[in-house]
Amino acid sequence: MARQRLVVGITGASAPHLGIHLLRTLRRLGTVETHLVISHAAHRTIELETGMRPSEVAALADVVHRRGDIAASIASGSFLTLGMAVVPCSMKTLAAVAHGYGDDLLTRAADVCLKERRPLVLVARETPLSLVHLRNMVAVTEAGATVLPPMSAFYQRPSSVEDVLAHLSGKVLDQFGIEHDVSPRWHGPVRTVQPVEGAVS
Maximum Cα–Cα distance for the chain, whole Å? Predict the structure, then answer.
């Protein structure tokens, strides 16, 4: 039986590490076929912030699509996928998705998810946020997307950057119902049994 497919987009926002970690996680899990699109600006941020070559990032995906190839499979709603995660999502890409401006394959693939009512997860990375950014977040949410900013959580007591990245990857995978063991889940505080006064041990 063929694996289900997930589209992953990496844009030029800071922290391409987020998308790279997600791709590595999906490769390790091996349960989903990944289709990757890297924006023009992301090629530069990958080099500047990670020291990796874009080709090394591309090698983590099962299928890589050129950002200008509007005839690619993921540009059509008839190509079945679980949806799409844009990790990280720049404010430029957010604006394009919010207003249906599919001028390249990445934004077209995102638009396909909206029109086909498939999950679209935008890991929007910018701070502080302007009113324009916030209005675009409202617009994509009303259209059916999920805005998932890369907020760090500390209930799992992270001790490294890897722990922080793993938590974010787990949150993204949860949006698509992909089973994983990436990051600890919260099960409530650990309760200790207090001895009953006067009890005989």
Answer: 77
Distance in angstroms (rounded) separating the CA atoms of residues 112 and 115: 5
Give buried/exposed letters for 129-142 (b at 16+ CB in 10 A, else e). eeeebeebbebbee
Give tens-digit pLDDT for 47-81.
Answer: 999 999 999 999 999 999 999 999 999 999 999 99
Structure token pair of residue 162: 């890897």
| CA separation for the pair 131, 175 (Å, rounded) | 26
Tokens in use for 89?
Answer: 């999502």
What span, in angstroms and rounded, lies between the C-alpha atoms of 101 and 105? Answer: 11
* Distance (Å, whole) CA 162 – CA 89: 20
The residue to which tokens 């790279």 are assigned: 20
Report whether 145 contacts 93 (CB < 8 A).
Answer: no
149 contacts: CB under 8 Å, gap ≥ 6: 123, 124, 125
Give the separation between CA 175 and CA 103, rounded to whole angstroms.
26
